[in-house]
Specification:
Layout (H helix, E strand, L loop, with lengths): L1 H9 L4 H36 L1
């Protein structure tokens, strides 16, 4: 049983893979925030035009 556990631990992702996943997650959040900011800016522009 202990040998199987060692094999499973040996199959873990390398730290570089975790770093890449983290980077992808952060980039996804930045893109989402950028979209929200763009939407807010468009709303502000529309409000100014109607004044």
């Amino acid at each position: 049983m202990e040998q199987q556990w060692r094999l499973k631990v040996g199959e873990r992702r390398p730290k570089e893979a975790d770093g890449a996943l983290f980077t992808q997650a952060v980039l996804g959040l930045i893109k989402e925030l950028a979209r929200e900011i763009e939407t807010e800016n468009e709303t502000d522009d529309t409000m100014e035009e109607t004044r």
